Amino acid sequence: MLLKIDLHVHTDRSPDGCSSIGEIAEAAKRKGLDGVAITDHDLILGESDALKLSCELGTLVIPGVELSTPEGHLIVLNPKREFGGLPLRAVAESARQDGSILIIPHPMDPLSHGIGFSEASSLILYSPLIEALNASTLNRYNSRAKDFALRNSLPMVAGSDAHLADAVGDAFTVVDSPSCDMASVLSSISIGKTAPSGGRTSAATAAKTVCTRLIRRIRG
Ligand SMILES: [Zn+2]
Ligand SMILES: [Zn+2]
């Protein structure tokens, strides 16, 4: 079956996130998604919490984290340990030993802490997936990410990088999975049965995200 999953979503547990997990799950269902991966900044959502949330919210919640390594951002799906402060390649090494999945988000976007061409090249041996479409990244950086994936025969994914529920699902990954349970979906992602889909977040939604973030900061 083909499942639509947004593999890059931030909740209000991220310092710059604006929506609760409940609001995100509602938005995902409204937009016809089959699930979301929660990838808060440096804050792991583990497998057991993700399973609990999936049941409570009625949509698949995939465990994950977006790490801020010294070299730039790296997403780990189904993380099994804390990575606090480790450099990029040490994270990749540990995560792959654990059987976790690596996604290089917005790799060619220097404005969003993308790791860039040479660091991305150094991770090829860890079989990462490449986020070839990030709804918050400029088209030219997405194009470069897609070129990089194609040149190196790496599987491609997409995610909204939503920090507000309105943006969830603007970009998403079509996952070809034998069933919709978490283990099957993770296994299908890990072997690259993925295709990026969707587009970029509208200027109106991006502006609403900035305003909502400001209001949240003012209110403390
Ligand atoms: Zn990022
Ligand atoms: Zn992000």
TrEMBL record:
<dbReference type="InterPro" id="IPR016195">
    <property type="entry name" value="Pol/histidinol_Pase-like"/>
</dbReference>
<dbReference type="InterPro" id="IPR004013">
    <property type="entry name" value="PHP_dom"/>
</dbReference>
<protein>
    <submittedName>
        <fullName>PHP domain-containing protein</fullName>
    </submittedName>
</protein>
<feature type="domain" description="Polymerase/histidinol phosphatase N-terminal">
    <location>
        <begin position="5"/>
        <end position="71"/>
    </location>
</feature>
<dbReference type="InterPro" id="IPR003141">
    <property type="entry name" value="Pol/His_phosphatase_N"/>
</dbReference>
<dbReference type="InterPro" id="IPR052018">
    <property type="entry name" value="PHP_domain"/>
</dbReference>
<dbReference type="GO" id="GO:0004534">
    <property type="term" value="F:5'-3' RNA exonuclease activity"/>
</dbReference>
<dbReference type="Pfam" id="PF13263">
    <property type="entry name" value="PHP_C"/>
</dbReference>
<dbReference type="GO" id="GO:0035312">
    <property type="term" value="F:5'-3' DNA exonuclease activity"/>
</dbReference>
<dbReference type="Pfam" id="PF02811">
    <property type="entry name" value="PHP"/>
</dbReference>
